Amino acid sequence: MHKLSWYVLLLSLLYFPLALSWSQDTQFNQAENYEGSSDLVNLEYHMGPVLASPTNLYIIWYGHWNPTHQATIRDFLYSLSSSAPYPSVADWWKTVRLYTDQTGSNITGSISLSGEFYDYRYSHGGYLSRLSMQSIIKTAVTSYPRPLPLNPRNGLYLVLTSSDVQVQDFCRAVCGFHYFTFPTIVGVTMPYAWIGYSGTQCPGMCAYPFAWPNYSGKPPPSTNGGNNIMRAPNGDAGVDGMISIIAHELAEVSSNPLVNAWYAGDDPTAPTEIADLCLGLYGSGGGGGYVGKVYKDSWGNGYNVNGVKGRRFLVQWVWNPVKRRCFGPNAMD
């Protein structure tokens, strides 16, 4: 891309901050998702890079975190590139890996948790703007004496905010988003994502289906006509809901890291990406707020993939470009 057009894109993205956001709200307002094969989806490749090289993932824990919640999130991230009983998190990632760049290179299957930074002093306060995430990354990579590596070659940064941190538009229009850093703030361009813990602020908004939104105006659907909320497989609605959002953002930042690769539509400031197309789908037959056919463990906790250390998770399906439909390894066909 020419230098001028890239600069214009940077400016446009800076002033259209709602792009690349993830929210559960859409699924309760006649959201379109495509569990069956569809030719209506105009998902296109726009010639930009995907994350094809083995990826070093860095977590920035912002605020005060429950160690049990941290362990659950780490185990999910370890599961992306580790074996587990089928259907596994790594099997789910195989759908994401189907996406390629212009050289034919697939998205990587190697994601390594390579560093963690604990910003327990709330270096940028308890209320954050979207742009604050880049300053948080800057703090993490320049902090003394143990900074995170500044890795523009194959680094991916995950900013996770604790339950007491308020973020611009969090719980109203967004549960998470991905973006890329600006050299004027961080020094280099590299992809990152932010996800907030919603367990105390808005579980009905960002921890579905383990909590039900009050604004929906209807009871939660279930296979037996009841109104029971699905139980979280790792014991906490906030962290289990957060994991599905992390999965969503990782799929999209890997397939569209600089907002010029895989998305539907002609406007990169408001793209529909590979997980947006499948919002709220976790199993066959899902739609309209019903997650679809998922597994239940002996305690009645819902899940659709297995992870390391016997963990189980519920993660959202993504768009399969070969089958041209939303898909996950727990699909019944």
UniProtKB/TrEMBL annotation:
The keyword Signal applies. Its main location: secreted. One of its GO terms (cellular component) is apoplast. Residues 1-21 form the signal peptide. The keyword Cytoplasm does not apply. Keywords: Apoplast, Secreted, Signal. It is found in: Secreted, Extracellular space, Apoplast. It comes from the Eukaryota. Belongs to the EXORDIUM family. This is EXORDIUM like 1. It comes from Theobroma cacao (Cacao).
